[in-house]
Structure to design on (228 residues):
């Protein structure tokens, strides 16, 4: 158990819909990262938050947004869903914002868009 | 930008065989290097890491040495077990560009037969 929790584990929805994925980081960790894992793209970085503020964006679509709340949990919002958005979405957390920090991964949310 | 190239497999080995998974990287700064493992149906777990040149990471019989001169971080294990069957990802983290995001290789699926 990494200490990072993600809900829900599975999500099945239809094209055009909007969903919210939730992540609770390890106790005390200030950095939260979101990654997407798909068969064709592999593991891709989406966005990073540090202590409530957006730190960096990666390959995140404009239809996607995220935030980190004062209690440090984070939510990833995916809207106007398309079939190609079906993937595993991982949240990870690390203590600070150092490249030497270990990132601890949650179990992931599997999103299926029908 | 930063990138990681690793053997993709899939690879099938017999128990007690020697394992090497090659990983090379391209980075603008001085990255930290990681090996993560993903067991079926689970999230990613850190296997080992090295944060500077010539560092050796080790865990559960796996080893990898950070080689700056060859920009490599090859993973080795002298005697694999059935329980090592998983997907292995090489990754780097480099604060250049203002994010400590992980950049992953495509992953290598390993199956170990008894």
């Amino acid at each position: 158990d990494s200490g990072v929790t993600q809900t829900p584990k599975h999500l099945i929805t239809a094209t055009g819909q909007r969903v919210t994925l939730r992540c609770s980081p390890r106790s005390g960790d200030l950095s939260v990262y979101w990654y997407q894992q798909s068969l064709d793209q592999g593991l891709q970085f989406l966005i990073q938050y540090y202590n409530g503020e957006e730190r960096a964006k990666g390959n995140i679509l404009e239809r996607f947004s995220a935030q980190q709340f004062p209690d440090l949990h984070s939510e990833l919002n995916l809207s106007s869903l398309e079939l190609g958005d079906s993937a595993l979405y991982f949240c990870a957390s690390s203590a600070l914002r150092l490249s030497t920090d270990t990132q601890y991964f949650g179990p992931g949310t599997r999103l299926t868009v029908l | 930008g930063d990138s990681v190239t690793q053997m993709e497999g899939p690879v099938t080995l017999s128990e007690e065989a020697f394992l090497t998974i090659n990983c090379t990287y391209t980075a603008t700064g001085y990255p930290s290097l990681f090996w993560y493992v993903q067991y079926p149906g689970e999230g990613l777990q850190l296997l080992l890491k090295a944060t500077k040149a010539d560092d050796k990471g080790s865990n559960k019989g796996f080893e990898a040495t950070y080689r700056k001169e060859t920009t490599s971080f090859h993973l080795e294990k002298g005697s694999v077990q059935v329980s090592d069957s998983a997907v292995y990802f090489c990754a780097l983290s480099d604060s250049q560009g203002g994010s400590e995001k992980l950049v992953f290789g495509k992953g290598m699926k390993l199956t170990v037969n008894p």
User: Anything to note?
Assistant: The radius of gyration of chain A is 13 Å. Chain A touches chain B through 27 residues (CB under 8 Å). Chain A has a mean pLDDT of 94. The first strand of chain A starts at residue 5 and ends at 7.
